[in-house]
Write a structure and sequence with these properties.
This protein is mainly alpha-helical. Helix content is about 60%, strand content about 5%. It is elongated and about 85 Å long.
Amino acid sequence: MAAVIKAQAVDDPLLLPFFEAQADTPMEALALDQLMGIALPVIEENLGKYHLRSLQQGYLWSEEDARNEICAIIVNRVRRRKLRPDSKPITDFRAYTAVVTHNFCHFLLSQKNTERAKLKRDLRYLFAHCPELARWKGAHTTALCGFAAWKRHPDPAEGVETEQLSQIIRHRLVALDFPIQEPGQLELRELVTSIFRAVNAPLAWKELVRHVARIQRVSRTESREISFEEWLAESQHPLDEQNILDVAVEKRELIKLIWAEINLLPRRQAQALLLGMRSEQGRSPLVLFEQMGVATVEEIAQALEITTSQLKAILTGRALKDAEIARHFHLTRQQIINLRSSARKRLERRLEKNLLGKAVGWQ
């Protein structure tokens, strides 16, 4: 055990509770849950930059699917690092999470127009609009699918061969004197339900896609669908952890400077500025001060003259509107606007013009 800890001393300290926990114990599961609690806000922030919802028609994955797959990639990576202390260290867990999210989104963009991607979109549409079918999360974040009545079933069928499935479906079609007796010619809904009847158990989502693709003879080579790992190996410009670390260090120093300058502002100006800031997604970026270790939640709350519980509600939700800020400080909305305008002008005189907005995406 001592050798493992020594080999992993260069890793982010956030990983140490997971590395030091005995394998397959409640302590290890708890440490992993805590790690993913740290990772999820980073994933959400970076997924938001790619606007997956607005591009849904061209995507293999929904935003939720992408989030789950990124989580699975990260879990597998930290598990592999724990088992192999001679592997590449994870020196900054948040930076690594941002790297995986960025690269996975670019991977999705590269794959969205393939023939197999169209099949996946058709299947997702079918499951979203057919009440008798359902998709759910199984053990180890594996995506499962089947009849809706099977949703409590945690384990998928394994070792199912496509040719065997085709034979069972073909015999059933003949027995029913169905007008179509070749599985590959069935409509998608009929084919999917026939597969589930033949297996009589849920399937992993990837396995269902594989079976349907083979039965319908959807070409993998012509569509050029590749795995995320293959894409990373072939990509000429994947983002690496050092890129993120360099940016993170620069960004932290900038945010530290901004926080120091804000604290020199008259109190009401600082409050109007901080509470009214919002990202492109309409959320409060105040969380950056805490995430980057520039200020604690208590220090931010004290500067704003609000309780820590009020601040935490702001950090996890949307930024406050001017009218809400005005009510809190018993001022008018126009007074809040004027205070924030004065604060910006004062900061711009002390910082490079427009540095605030360019640096952290605040409006």
